[in-house]
Amino acid sequence: MKRAVLLRFVVILLLALAVSGAFSYYFIGRNMLQHDMSAMLRTIHTVDYALDYSGNLQEQVERLHAEALDAASRITVIASDGTVAADSEVDQVDGMENHLERDEVQEAFQTGTGSDTRSSESIGESMLYVAARSTNGRYVVRMAIPYTNVLDYVISIFPVLLLGTGIAFVVSVVIAVRFADTITTPLNEISEEMGKVNGAQTDFSFKRYKYKELNVISETTMKMAAEIQAHMDQLEKEKKIRQEFFSNASHELKTPITSIRGYAELLDQGFVQDEATKKDFYARILKETGNMTNLINDILMISRLEAKEAEVTFSTVRIGPLLTEIFESAEPIAAEYQVMLHKECSPVAIEASAKQLRELIMNLVSNGIKYNHPGGNVWVEAWQENGRLFIRVRDDGCGMDKEEQERVFERFYRVDKGRSKKMGGTGLGLSIVKHIVEFYSGSIRLESEPGKGSCFTVVLPFKKRL
Ligand code: ADP
Q1: 342 in Cβ contact with 374 (< 8 Å)
Q2: Beta strands across the sheet bearing 443-449
Q3: Is residue 326 within 6 Å of ligand 1 at its C-beta?
Q4: What is the pTM of this model?
Q5: Comparing 239 with 308, which gets the higher pLDDT?
Q6: Are 337 and 374 in contact (CB under 8 A)?
Q7: Is the Cβ atom of 429 under 6 angstroms away from ligand 1?
Q8: What PROSITE patterns does this protein map onto (predicted)?
Protein backbone atom coordinates (compact mmCIF):
# COMPACT_ATOMS: atom_id res chain seq x y z
CA MET A 1 0.00 0.00 0.00
CA LYS A 2 2.81 2.38 0.89
CA ARG A 3 4.39 1.78 -2.52
CA ALA A 4 1.10 2.42 -4.27
CA VAL A 5 0.60 5.68 -2.32
CA LEU A 6 4.16 6.79 -3.11
CA LEU A 7 3.95 5.82 -6.76
CA ARG A 8 0.74 7.77 -7.26
CA PHE A 9 2.17 10.70 -5.38
CA VAL A 10 5.33 10.74 -7.52
CA VAL A 11 3.31 10.49 -10.75
CA ILE A 12 1.11 13.42 -9.65
CA LEU A 13 4.16 15.37 -8.58
CA LEU A 14 5.94 14.82 -11.90
CA LEU A 15 2.82 15.81 -13.81
CA ALA A 16 2.45 18.96 -11.72
CA LEU A 17 6.11 19.81 -12.18
CA ALA A 18 5.93 19.18 -15.94
CA VAL A 19 2.83 21.35 -16.37
CA SER A 20 4.05 24.18 -14.14
CA GLY A 21 7.55 23.89 -15.72
CA ALA A 22 6.17 24.14 -19.25
CA PHE A 23 4.10 27.19 -18.35
CA SER A 24 6.88 28.96 -16.49
CA TYR A 25 9.45 28.16 -19.22
CA TYR A 26 7.13 29.60 -21.85
CA PHE A 27 6.27 32.77 -19.92
CA ILE A 28 9.82 33.41 -18.73
CA GLY A 29 11.07 32.93 -22.34
CA ARG A 30 8.45 35.31 -23.68
CA ASN A 31 9.22 37.92 -21.04
CA MET A 32 12.91 37.74 -21.79
CA LEU A 33 12.22 38.14 -25.52
CA GLN A 34 10.09 41.20 -24.83
CA HIS A 35 12.73 42.53 -22.52
CA ASP A 36 15.35 42.09 -25.29
CA MET A 37 13.11 43.70 -27.85
CA SER A 38 12.58 46.81 -25.70
CA ALA A 39 16.35 46.96 -25.00
CA MET A 40 16.94 46.75 -28.76
CA LEU A 41 14.44 49.54 -29.32
CA ARG A 42 16.27 51.72 -26.81
CA THR A 43 19.56 51.04 -28.65
CA ILE A 44 17.87 51.87 -31.98
CA HIS A 45 16.65 55.18 -30.58
CA THR A 46 20.16 55.96 -29.29
CA VAL A 47 21.65 55.07 -32.68
CA ASP A 48 18.99 57.19 -34.40
CA TYR A 49 19.81 60.07 -32.07
CA ALA A 50 23.58 59.69 -32.67
CA LEU A 51 23.33 59.51 -36.48
CA ASP A 52 23.82 62.55 -38.64
CA TYR A 53 21.57 61.70 -41.60
CA SER A 54 23.26 64.32 -43.79
CA GLY A 55 26.70 62.72 -43.36
CA ASN A 56 28.14 59.34 -44.40
CA LEU A 57 25.76 56.92 -42.77
CA GLN A 58 27.78 53.78 -43.53
CA GLU A 59 30.85 55.13 -41.80
CA GLN A 60 28.89 56.31 -38.78
CA VAL A 61 27.08 53.00 -38.43
CA GLU A 62 30.30 50.99 -38.65
CA ARG A 63 31.96 53.20 -36.02
CA LEU A 64 29.00 53.11 -33.67
CA HIS A 65 28.71 49.33 -34.00
CA ALA A 66 32.40 48.79 -33.41
CA GLU A 67 32.55 51.04 -30.38
CA ALA A 68 29.23 50.63 -28.61
CA LEU A 69 27.48 47.46 -29.71
CA ASP A 70 27.73 43.73 -29.26
CA ALA A 71 29.56 42.00 -32.12
CA ALA A 72 26.69 39.57 -32.67
CA SER A 73 24.24 42.39 -33.31
CA ARG A 74 23.69 44.12 -36.63
CA ILE A 75 22.50 47.64 -37.42
CA THR A 76 20.92 48.54 -40.76
CA VAL A 77 19.62 51.95 -41.87
CA ILE A 78 16.96 51.77 -44.62
CA ALA A 79 15.71 54.74 -46.57
CA SER A 80 12.00 55.32 -47.17
CA ASP A 81 12.25 53.85 -50.70
CA GLY A 82 13.64 50.60 -49.25
CA THR A 83 17.28 51.08 -50.29
CA VAL A 84 19.82 50.17 -47.64
CA ALA A 85 21.62 53.33 -46.59
CA ALA A 86 24.02 51.67 -44.14
CA ASP A 87 24.70 48.22 -42.69
CA SER A 88 27.15 47.29 -39.93
CA GLU A 89 27.87 43.87 -41.45
CA VAL A 90 28.09 44.67 -45.15
CA ASP A 91 30.81 46.92 -46.68
CA GLN A 92 29.11 47.58 -49.97
CA VAL A 93 25.48 48.50 -49.40
CA ASP A 94 24.94 49.38 -53.04
CA GLY A 95 24.59 45.80 -54.08
CA MET A 96 22.03 45.04 -51.37
CA GLU A 97 18.48 44.10 -52.13
CA ASN A 98 15.64 46.60 -51.58
CA HIS A 99 14.34 46.18 -47.99
CA LEU A 100 10.94 47.84 -48.37
CA GLU A 101 9.05 44.54 -48.38
CA ARG A 102 10.61 43.29 -45.15
CA ASP A 103 7.86 42.97 -42.53
CA GLU A 104 9.59 44.87 -39.72
CA VAL A 105 10.52 47.72 -42.13
CA GLN A 106 6.98 48.02 -43.48
CA GLU A 107 5.59 47.99 -39.94
CA ALA A 108 8.12 50.59 -38.71
CA PHE A 109 7.32 53.00 -41.57
CA GLN A 110 3.62 52.56 -40.94
CA THR A 111 3.38 52.48 -37.14
CA GLY A 112 6.76 53.72 -35.89
CA THR A 113 8.13 50.35 -34.72
CA GLY A 114 8.18 46.79 -36.06
CA SER A 115 9.67 43.39 -35.45
CA ASP A 116 10.09 40.00 -37.12
CA THR A 117 12.02 36.73 -36.79
CA ARG A 118 13.36 34.90 -39.84
CA SER A 119 16.46 33.63 -41.49
CA SER A 120 18.65 36.49 -42.75
CA GLU A 121 19.17 36.45 -46.50
CA SER A 122 22.39 38.41 -46.17
CA ILE A 123 24.11 36.37 -43.47
CA GLY A 124 22.10 33.13 -43.57
CA GLU A 125 21.40 32.95 -39.78
CA SER A 126 18.07 32.90 -37.97
CA MET A 127 17.59 36.41 -36.58
CA LEU A 128 15.34 38.67 -34.51
CA TYR A 129 14.71 41.99 -36.19
CA VAL A 130 13.49 45.13 -34.40
CA ALA A 131 13.02 48.33 -36.37
CA ALA A 132 11.98 51.95 -35.63
CA ARG A 133 11.35 54.98 -37.76
CA SER A 134 14.03 57.68 -37.45
CA THR A 135 13.06 60.91 -35.75
CA ASN A 136 13.13 62.74 -39.07
CA GLY A 137 10.73 60.11 -40.48
CA ARG A 138 12.82 59.45 -43.61
CA TYR A 139 14.62 56.31 -42.49
CA VAL A 140 14.12 53.14 -40.53
CA VAL A 141 16.88 52.07 -38.17
CA ARG A 142 16.86 48.30 -37.69
CA MET A 143 18.73 46.15 -35.26
CA ALA A 144 19.09 42.33 -35.55
CA ILE A 145 20.45 39.69 -33.17
CA PRO A 146 20.76 35.93 -33.66
CA TYR A 147 17.64 34.16 -32.37
CA THR A 148 15.83 30.92 -33.17
CA ASN A 149 12.84 30.86 -30.82
CA VAL A 150 11.71 31.22 -27.19
CA LEU A 151 13.73 28.10 -26.31
CA ASP A 152 16.94 30.11 -26.83
CA TYR A 153 16.14 31.86 -23.58
CA VAL A 154 14.91 28.77 -21.85
CA ILE A 155 18.22 27.04 -22.44
CA SER A 156 20.01 29.84 -20.61
CA ILE A 157 17.78 29.47 -17.52
CA PHE A 158 17.45 25.70 -17.79
CA PRO A 159 20.14 24.76 -15.19
CA VAL A 160 18.56 27.03 -12.56
CA LEU A 161 15.08 25.71 -13.26
CA LEU A 162 16.35 22.14 -13.26
CA LEU A 163 18.02 22.67 -9.88
CA GLY A 164 14.81 24.20 -8.46
CA THR A 165 12.69 21.37 -9.83
CA GLY A 166 15.16 18.79 -8.48
CA ILE A 167 15.09 20.30 -4.98
CA ALA A 168 11.27 20.52 -5.06
CA PHE A 169 11.11 16.90 -6.20
CA VAL A 170 13.43 15.58 -3.50
CA VAL A 171 11.71 17.58 -0.72
CA SER A 172 8.28 16.46 -1.96
CA VAL A 173 9.32 12.79 -2.13
CA VAL A 174 10.67 12.98 1.44
CA ILE A 175 7.41 14.56 2.63
CA ALA A 176 5.42 11.99 0.63
CA VAL A 177 7.34 9.11 2.22
CA ARG A 178 6.65 10.54 5.68
CA PHE A 179 3.00 11.12 4.82
CA ALA A 180 2.62 7.58 3.45
CA ASP A 181 4.25 6.33 6.65
CA THR A 182 1.80 8.19 8.89
CA ILE A 183 -1.03 6.37 7.10
CA THR A 184 0.43 2.95 6.44
CA THR A 185 2.24 2.42 9.75
CA PRO A 186 -0.96 2.78 11.86
CA LEU A 187 -2.90 0.65 9.37
CA ASN A 188 -0.22 -2.02 9.57
CA GLU A 189 -0.27 -1.88 13.37
CA ILE A 190 -4.07 -2.05 13.46
CA SER A 191 -4.24 -4.98 11.04
CA GLU A 192 -1.48 -6.76 12.98
CA GLU A 193 -3.46 -6.30 16.22
CA MET A 194 -6.65 -7.49 14.52
CA GLY A 195 -4.75 -10.47 13.15
CA LYS A 196 -4.22 -11.62 16.73
CA VAL A 197 -7.95 -12.38 17.07
CA ASN A 198 -8.32 -15.90 18.25
CA GLY A 199 -11.81 -17.14 18.98
CA ALA A 200 -13.47 -14.68 21.33
CA GLN A 201 -10.25 -12.93 22.36
CA THR A 202 -11.06 -9.26 22.75
CA ASP A 203 -8.15 -7.76 24.68
CA PHE A 204 -6.84 -5.60 21.84
CA SER A 205 -4.27 -2.93 22.61
CA PHE A 206 -4.60 -0.24 19.96
CA LYS A 207 -2.54 2.95 20.05
CA ARG A 208 -4.00 6.43 19.66
CA TYR A 209 -3.27 7.98 16.28
CA LYS A 210 -3.08 11.49 14.87
CA TYR A 211 -5.93 10.93 12.39
CA LYS A 212 -9.34 10.39 13.94
CA GLU A 213 -10.41 8.12 11.05
CA LEU A 214 -7.74 5.63 12.15
CA ASN A 215 -8.89 5.81 15.77
CA VAL A 216 -12.43 5.14 14.57
CA ILE A 217 -11.24 1.81 13.11
CA SER A 218 -9.69 0.71 16.40
CA GLU A 219 -12.55 2.04 18.52
CA THR A 220 -15.15 0.33 16.32
CA THR A 221 -13.19 -2.91 16.37
CA MET A 222 -12.98 -2.85 20.17
CA LYS A 223 -16.66 -1.96 20.47
CA MET A 224 -17.65 -4.75 18.08
CA ALA A 225 -15.43 -7.24 19.88
CA ALA A 226 -16.92 -6.26 23.24
CA GLU A 227 -20.44 -6.57 21.82
CA ILE A 228 -19.67 -9.99 20.34
CA GLN A 229 -18.18 -11.10 23.65
CA ALA A 230 -21.24 -9.85 25.59
CA HIS A 231 -23.53 -11.56 23.10
CA MET A 232 -21.60 -14.81 23.40
CA ASP A 233 -21.67 -14.59 27.20
CA GLN A 234 -25.41 -14.02 27.07
CA LEU A 235 -25.90 -17.02 24.75
CA GLU A 236 -23.76 -19.14 27.05
CA LYS A 237 -25.82 -18.02 30.06
CA GLU A 238 -29.09 -18.73 28.28
CA LYS A 239 -27.81 -22.13 27.20
CA LYS A 240 -26.95 -22.99 30.80
CA ILE A 241 -30.33 -21.79 32.08
CA ARG A 242 -32.11 -23.84 29.42
CA GLN A 243 -30.09 -26.97 30.25
CA GLU A 244 -30.81 -26.56 33.95
CA PHE A 245 -34.45 -25.96 33.18
CA PHE A 246 -34.75 -29.13 31.11
CA SER A 247 -33.03 -31.28 33.69
CA ASN A 248 -35.16 -29.79 36.50
CA ALA A 249 -38.36 -30.15 34.48
CA SER A 250 -37.61 -33.80 33.67
CA HIS A 251 -36.84 -34.44 37.30
CA GLU A 252 -40.06 -32.74 38.41
CA LEU A 253 -42.08 -34.81 35.93
CA LYS A 254 -40.36 -38.02 36.88
CA THR A 255 -41.55 -37.90 40.50
CA PRO A 256 -45.34 -37.86 39.83
CA ILE A 257 -44.93 -40.41 37.04
CA THR A 258 -43.07 -42.76 39.39
CA SER A 259 -45.76 -42.54 42.06
CA ILE A 260 -48.61 -42.86 39.53
CA ARG A 261 -46.89 -45.94 38.15
CA GLY A 262 -46.44 -47.33 41.70
CA TYR A 263 -50.14 -46.92 42.58
CA ALA A 264 -51.28 -48.24 39.21
CA GLU A 265 -49.09 -51.36 39.54
CA LEU A 266 -50.36 -52.06 43.05
CA LEU A 267 -53.94 -51.72 41.86
CA ASP A 268 -53.23 -53.78 38.75
CA GLN A 269 -51.63 -56.67 40.61
CA GLY A 270 -54.64 -56.91 42.92
CA PHE A 271 -52.65 -56.36 46.13
CA VAL A 272 -55.14 -53.79 47.33
CA GLN A 273 -58.41 -55.39 48.33
CA ASP A 274 -59.72 -52.80 50.68
CA GLU A 275 -62.13 -50.44 48.83
CA ALA A 276 -61.21 -47.44 50.95
CA THR A 277 -57.48 -47.88 50.16
CA LYS A 278 -58.32 -48.35 46.46
CA LYS A 279 -60.24 -45.09 46.52
CA ASP A 280 -57.37 -43.39 48.24
CA PHE A 281 -54.96 -44.69 45.56
CA TYR A 282 -57.22 -43.42 42.77
CA ALA A 283 -57.38 -40.06 44.49
CA ARG A 284 -53.58 -39.96 44.76
CA ILE A 285 -53.24 -40.84 41.08
CA LEU A 286 -55.63 -38.00 40.21
CA LYS A 287 -53.73 -35.60 42.46
CA GLU A 288 -50.42 -36.51 40.84
CA THR A 289 -51.84 -36.09 37.34
CA GLY A 290 -53.22 -32.75 38.49
CA ASN A 291 -49.71 -31.79 39.64
CA MET A 292 -48.30 -32.91 36.30
CA THR A 293 -50.88 -30.87 34.42
CA ASN A 294 -50.01 -27.81 36.52
CA LEU A 295 -46.33 -28.37 35.83
CA ILE A 296 -46.77 -28.83 32.08
CA ASN A 297 -49.00 -25.77 31.88
CA ASP A 298 -46.41 -23.70 33.74
CA ILE A 299 -43.59 -25.00 31.53
CA LEU A 300 -45.60 -24.11 28.42
CA MET A 301 -46.37 -20.70 29.86
CA ILE A 302 -42.67 -20.01 30.54
CA SER A 303 -41.58 -21.16 27.11
CA ARG A 304 -44.24 -18.97 25.46
CA LEU A 305 -43.13 -15.99 27.51
CA GLU A 306 -39.49 -16.66 26.69
CA ALA A 307 -40.22 -16.85 23.00
CA LYS A 308 -41.89 -13.41 23.42
CA GLU A 309 -44.77 -14.74 21.41
CA ALA A 310 -46.02 -12.42 18.72
CA GLU A 311 -49.59 -13.65 19.07
CA VAL A 312 -50.14 -11.99 22.45
CA THR A 313 -53.50 -10.27 22.02
CA PHE A 314 -53.70 -6.85 23.54
CA SER A 315 -56.92 -5.30 24.76
CA THR A 316 -58.02 -2.71 27.28
CA VAL A 317 -58.12 -4.65 30.54
CA ARG A 318 -60.16 -3.12 33.37
CA ILE A 319 -58.51 -4.19 36.59
CA GLY A 320 -61.64 -4.04 38.83
CA PRO A 321 -63.64 -6.66 36.89
CA LEU A 322 -60.47 -8.73 36.42
CA LEU A 323 -59.94 -8.87 40.21
CA THR A 324 -63.56 -9.89 40.72
CA GLU A 325 -63.10 -12.73 38.23
CA ILE A 326 -59.83 -13.85 39.90
CA PHE A 327 -61.44 -13.77 43.34
CA GLU A 328 -64.28 -15.94 42.06
CA SER A 329 -61.87 -18.63 40.87
CA ALA A 330 -59.68 -18.34 44.00
CA GLU A 331 -62.64 -18.51 46.38
CA PRO A 332 -62.77 -22.36 46.58
CA ILE A 333 -59.10 -22.74 47.66
CA ALA A 334 -59.39 -19.67 49.92
CA ALA A 335 -62.31 -21.43 51.61
CA GLU A 336 -60.33 -24.65 51.77
CA TYR A 337 -57.40 -22.92 53.49
CA GLN A 338 -59.74 -20.69 55.52
CA VAL A 339 -58.18 -17.52 54.19
CA MET A 340 -60.13 -14.28 53.64
CA LEU A 341 -59.72 -12.36 50.39
CA HIS A 342 -59.99 -8.56 50.28
CA LYS A 343 -59.70 -6.15 47.39
CA GLU A 344 -59.51 -2.43 46.92
CA CYS A 345 -59.34 -1.12 43.40
CA SER A 346 -59.65 2.32 41.84
CA PRO A 347 -61.20 2.36 38.35
CA VAL A 348 -58.14 1.74 36.24
CA ALA A 349 -57.49 0.02 32.91
CA ILE A 350 -54.37 -0.94 30.98
CA GLU A 351 -53.59 -1.97 27.42
CA ALA A 352 -52.33 -5.53 27.91
CA SER A 353 -53.07 -9.21 27.49
CA ALA A 354 -55.93 -10.11 29.86
CA LYS A 355 -54.67 -13.69 29.98
CA GLN A 356 -51.20 -12.65 31.14
CA LEU A 357 -52.52 -10.21 33.73
CA ARG A 358 -54.86 -12.88 35.11
CA GLU A 359 -51.96 -15.34 35.32
CA LEU A 360 -49.80 -12.75 37.11
CA ILE A 361 -52.35 -11.76 39.76
CA MET A 362 -53.69 -15.30 40.16
CA ASN A 363 -50.22 -16.65 40.92
CA LEU A 364 -49.63 -14.01 43.62
CA VAL A 365 -53.09 -14.44 45.14
CA SER A 366 -52.89 -18.24 45.24
CA ASN A 367 -49.42 -18.03 46.85
CA GLY A 368 -50.87 -15.66 49.46
CA ILE A 369 -53.54 -18.29 50.19
CA LYS A 370 -51.26 -21.34 50.06
CA TYR A 371 -48.48 -19.96 52.23
CA ASN A 372 -50.83 -18.81 54.94
CA HIS A 373 -52.58 -20.16 58.00
CA PRO A 374 -56.25 -20.70 58.74
CA GLY A 375 -57.82 -17.34 59.56
CA GLY A 376 -55.25 -15.50 57.49
CA ASN A 377 -55.92 -12.75 54.94
CA VAL A 378 -54.90 -11.77 51.44
CA TRP A 379 -55.34 -8.14 50.36
CA VAL A 380 -55.18 -7.05 46.72
CA GLU A 381 -54.97 -3.37 45.81
CA ALA A 382 -54.66 -1.72 42.38
CA TRP A 383 -54.20 1.97 41.57
CA GLN A 384 -52.69 4.36 39.13
CA GLU A 385 -49.74 6.61 40.02
CA ASN A 386 -47.35 8.70 37.89
CA GLY A 387 -48.53 7.10 34.67
CA ARG A 388 -48.00 3.59 36.00
CA LEU A 389 -50.26 0.82 37.21
CA PHE A 390 -49.56 -0.48 40.73
CA ILE A 391 -50.82 -3.90 41.84
CA ARG A 392 -50.09 -4.94 45.41
CA VAL A 393 -50.79 -8.46 46.79
CA ARG A 394 -50.22 -8.66 50.55
CA ASP A 395 -50.80 -11.50 53.02
CA ASP A 396 -50.35 -12.11 56.72
CA GLY A 397 -49.10 -15.64 56.10
CA CYS A 398 -45.86 -17.43 56.87
CA GLY A 399 -43.52 -14.93 55.15
CA MET A 400 -39.91 -15.75 54.37
CA ASP A 401 -36.44 -14.62 55.36
CA LYS A 402 -34.07 -12.39 53.38
CA GLU A 403 -32.08 -15.21 51.78
CA GLU A 404 -35.24 -16.90 50.52
CA GLN A 405 -36.67 -13.62 49.22
CA GLU A 406 -33.70 -13.34 46.89
CA ARG A 407 -34.29 -16.77 45.40
CA VAL A 408 -38.06 -17.22 45.16
CA PHE A 409 -38.19 -15.87 41.59
CA GLU A 410 -35.78 -18.61 40.40
CA ARG A 411 -37.31 -21.49 38.49
CA PHE A 412 -38.24 -24.51 40.61
CA TYR A 413 -37.11 -22.79 43.80
CA ARG A 414 -39.35 -23.62 46.74
CA VAL A 415 -38.74 -22.63 50.35
CA ASP A 416 -40.58 -25.67 51.72
CA LYS A 417 -40.61 -28.25 48.96
CA GLY A 418 -42.93 -30.69 50.72
CA ARG A 419 -45.51 -28.04 51.52
CA SER A 420 -45.41 -26.52 48.05
CA LYS A 421 -45.88 -29.92 46.41
CA LYS A 422 -48.66 -30.87 48.70
CA MET A 423 -50.47 -27.77 47.58
CA GLY A 424 -49.90 -28.46 43.89
CA GLY A 425 -47.07 -25.93 43.59
CA THR A 426 -44.60 -26.28 40.75
CA GLY A 427 -41.94 -23.81 41.87
CA LEU A 428 -42.55 -21.91 38.62
CA GLY A 429 -45.30 -19.51 39.69
CA LEU A 430 -43.14 -16.52 40.71
CA SER A 431 -40.80 -17.15 37.78
CA ILE A 432 -43.82 -16.77 35.47
CA VAL A 433 -44.85 -13.60 37.34
CA LYS A 434 -41.38 -12.11 36.83
CA HIS A 435 -41.41 -13.00 33.12
CA ILE A 436 -44.79 -11.30 32.60
CA VAL A 437 -43.63 -8.19 34.49
CA GLU A 438 -40.50 -8.04 32.30
CA PHE A 439 -42.60 -8.51 29.16
CA TYR A 440 -44.33 -5.23 30.05
CA SER A 441 -41.02 -3.56 31.02
CA GLY A 442 -42.28 -3.29 34.57
CA SER A 443 -40.81 -4.13 37.97
CA ILE A 444 -41.69 -6.26 40.99
CA ARG A 445 -40.72 -5.68 44.62
CA LEU A 446 -41.01 -8.16 47.48
CA GLU A 447 -41.08 -7.31 51.18
CA SER A 448 -41.52 -10.17 53.60
CA GLU A 449 -40.93 -11.10 57.19
CA PRO A 450 -41.04 -14.68 58.50
CA GLY A 451 -44.19 -15.27 60.51
CA LYS A 452 -45.68 -11.90 59.62
CA GLY A 453 -46.46 -12.09 55.93
CA SER A 454 -45.35 -11.03 52.47
CA CYS A 455 -46.09 -8.14 50.18
CA PHE A 456 -45.53 -8.20 46.39
CA THR A 457 -45.76 -4.86 44.53
CA VAL A 458 -45.93 -4.93 40.75
CA VAL A 459 -45.48 -1.71 38.75
CA LEU A 460 -46.40 -1.69 35.04
CA PRO A 461 -45.98 1.26 32.68
CA PHE A 462 -49.18 2.06 30.78
CA LYS A 463 -47.40 2.17 27.44
CA LYS A 464 -45.58 -1.05 26.72
CA ARG A 465 -42.14 -0.51 25.18
CA LEU A 466 -41.98 -2.90 22.24
P1 ADP B 1 -44.81 -22.62 44.10
O2 ADP B 1 -45.43 -23.34 43.01
O3 ADP B 1 -43.99 -23.51 44.98
O4 ADP B 1 -45.77 -21.81 44.90
P5 ADP B 1 -43.67 -20.12 43.36
O6 ADP B 1 -42.64 -19.79 42.34
O7 ADP B 1 -44.98 -19.48 43.23
O8 ADP B 1 -43.76 -21.68 43.43
O9 ADP B 1 -43.06 -19.71 44.75
C10 ADP B 1 -41.78 -20.13 45.12
C11 ADP B 1 -41.64 -20.30 46.60
O12 ADP B 1 -41.74 -19.02 47.22
C13 ADP B 1 -42.76 -21.10 47.20
O14 ADP B 1 -42.44 -22.44 47.19
C15 ADP B 1 -42.86 -20.54 48.60
O16 ADP B 1 -41.95 -21.22 49.42
C17 ADP B 1 -42.40 -19.11 48.46
N18 ADP B 1 -43.54 -18.19 48.44
C19 ADP B 1 -44.18 -17.69 47.36
N20 ADP B 1 -45.16 -16.83 47.72
C21 ADP B 1 -45.15 -16.77 49.07
C22 ADP B 1 -45.93 -16.05 50.03
N23 ADP B 1 -46.91 -15.24 49.69
N24 ADP B 1 -45.62 -16.24 51.34
C25 ADP B 1 -44.62 -17.05 51.69
N26 ADP B 1 -43.85 -17.76 50.84
C27 ADP B 1 -44.13 -17.63 49.54
Answers
A1: no
A2: 340-345, 377-385, 388-395, 453-461, 443-449
A3: no
A4: 0.59
A5: 239
A6: yes
A7: yes
A8: HIS_KIN
